[in-house]
Amino acid sequence: MATDAETIGSEIVRIQRQARFADISEREWGRRLEHLIADQADVVGDVRVWDVRQVGTAAGGSNGTLLFRAAFTTAAGAQERELVLRFLPVEGLFHAYDVAGQFNLQRALEGAGVPAPPQLWLDSEGRHLQRPGYVMAMVRGVGPPMTWMTSGVIAEATPDGRRRMTTSYVHTLAKLHALDWRALGLEWLEKRAEGARPIEREVNWYWDSLIWSGVPGFVDDLAPVRTWLIRNEPTDLATVICHGDANLGNYLFDDEQVSAVVDWEMAFLGAPECDLTFLAAGNEILQGDVTPLEGALTYPEMKAEYERVSGRPLRHMAYFELFTAFRIAVINVLAMKHFPPEVLQSFMPVLQLGPRICLERARALGIEV
User: In terms of domains, do 121 and 225 share one?
Assistant: First the structure.
């Protein structure tokens, strides 16, 4: 199962990226990027873009992402930089993408203690890129694959190194959750979806995606879970900024510390427990039968370390584990849209795990599904 899950995880990323790029060549992307950079007020003279390529790790799989090199001149002099383009997918995983919101959120985090990549230029209407998108600085670091226990930077580290990396991951979440989102001007996240309360809004956001997907059968199955989550949302939540896609593939590591947090399109206002439960839920699907890595923090250890470093107790964990299972169930259903029929059947055992685990958790809480 571990090898199959690793193959499927890689294939999910590959096919999602293929759907996002359609038939647009790297050369064409380079031309569009040259137009975008040349139009910036502080850029003078010629612009050259080259070495346009797709990202080679799990990070960025659910959005359009390209790496490239650019040479241009500003008042500070000639520059040659490694940069990253993020853009609205040609065929997206979700029903809605707020490219300008992603740019503005990461810009708000600059200097706030959370290592989000510096944001450079926004083309919110796609005037130059022909797709809404933005350019940010490339940050030094390596991201692990979705199956991080079997290969990649964490699996290849020493036990002490694994502990340092997974501890740094937990500490980064604690720093994010400690931020004053109102002081950062992020109130607009309260309008992400319909609803009067944070979790209700996020449940509805995923429900809208599920309806939009058109994949038969799952709406009826998951409807009782949605209803229960909304009716039973805890009233004593500590509302925080949640990364939303807190799998380790979206955390770049340099010298065994988190150097950047990427892939922010799933960010929302929620509770700390939402991010803490996300990695464990993903591991259960893709790595449920993999022997835990020596040295890496286990799920109970991550929760304990989070409480220690944040000074914040984690509460209502059964509720939030179901909430996260609901989110991942919907994500698994949405992923089904991206596989050609001839290969979908072989991947269904893993993709069906999300809905199955969600329904099992619901039954354990006495929900009739």
Answer: no
Q: What is the pLDDT of residues 114-166, one digit of tens each?
A: 999 999 999 999 999 999 999 999 999 999 998 999 999 999 999 999 999 99
Asked if 278 contacts 312 with a C-beta cutoff of 8 angstroms, the reply is no
**Residues near 90 by beta carbon (within 8 Å), at least 6 away in sequence:** 19, 20, 21, 22, 24, 64, 131
d(CA 344, CA 338): 9
Beta bridge mates, 269? 241
Q: Looking at residue 340, what DSSP letter applies?
A: -
Region class of 78: left (phi > 0), else alpha (psi between -120 and 50), else beta: beta
Question: Taking each helix axis from N to C terminus, what angle separates 198-213 and 317-336, rounded to the nearest 10 degrees?
Answer: 20
DSSP readout, 132-181? -EEEEE--S-BPPPSSTTTSSTTTTS-HHHHHHHHHHHHHHHHHHHTS-T
Q: What percent of the chain has pLDDT over 70?
A: 92
CA 147: distance to chain centroid? 15
Which structural domain range is residue 56 located in?
A: 2-137
Predicted pLDDT at 286: 87
pLDDT tens profile 179-221: 999 999 999 999 999 999 999 999 999 999 999 999 888 999 9
Last residue of a domain, one of 102, 137, 172: 137
Task: Assess whether 124 and 188 both reside in one domain.
Answer: no
Q: What is the pTM of this model?
A: 0.92
Is 86 among the domain residues? yes
Count Cβ atoms below 10 Å from residue 229 Cβ, excluding itself: 23
The answer on 245 and 187 residing in a single domain is: yes
Q: What is the pLDDT of residue 2?
A: 47
- Per-residue pLDDT of 210-243, as tens digits, reads 999 998 889 999 999 999 999 999 999 999 999 9
User: For residue 301, what are its two tokens?
Assistant: 């250890």
| 108 and 250 together in one domain | no
The CATH number given to whatever domain includes residue 165 is: 3.90.1200.10
